[in-house]
Amino acid sequence: MLIIERLKQQETFSIAEKRIAEYILAHLPEIPTIFIQELAEKTFSSHSTIVRLSQKLGYSGFREFKDALAEVVYANIHSVEEVNANFPFHSLDTPADVAKKMADLTIHTVQRAAMQVDSDQLKLVVDVLMAAKRIFLFSRGDTQLRARSFQNKLIKINKFAIQAEEYVDTEWNAVSIEQQDCAFFLSYSGIVQPYTKIMRYLMEKNIPVILLTGNPDSPMVPYATHVLLTIQEEFDFAKIATFSSQTAFEYILNTIYSVMYTRDYEHNLRNLKGNQDLMTHGLLADEE
Fold it and tell me: Which intervals hold domain SIS (predicted)?
């Protein structure tokens, strides 16, 4: 019988042993690092009672018992269960339950997004971004946070992106885009009417347009030069938060940046070292 099941089968336990077992079951992730004295204090028991319970469960003492529990905790952490992307946790979940479910949702989302990556489209998107004189990022809401993170990373490879919605000057930014630039639209729903209008205008101007979306039927798709899809099991409105879609977008954008970085890997590393030296030992270093 598994150790957890044995802890739940408490017919032969004393009152103190039941109290210890219940505490362990309720705080399982903490047990591998707990000391016997701390466990005794938290369960209002004694060292000898904890050792006696350990031996009753078939272990030589608390150390061996704790090692067995650590294996269970490790296995739980590394086993991924499918989680509802819209309501990944419930009111009765413990903080440990919520943490595990959010970890499972994140892993499942990234795995799903990775399976959907079209490597040919990814290469073409990177080609466009590398060749662009300026990169205009169109995004709103939570997605704009992902876009800002991407913008910040691009600085590390000497590429500078512009947030087209920075001061709600979207149309002004759109009309200033030239053929040597590119426009990158990010919208999970793929339904942003002003974007469709702008993309149609950019297409007529033969300006490269990239679209990252979770909607293959988006009205924006026909006006994009290149489309990257990441379809998650997330509803438009009936959800606690945009956990899954934003995790997927972050993964895709990180992947794009990483592929861009590899295009001139050695140069980027030398540039990184040079910039670090300037900021730590050169004119940009903090004065002592």
Answer: 125-266
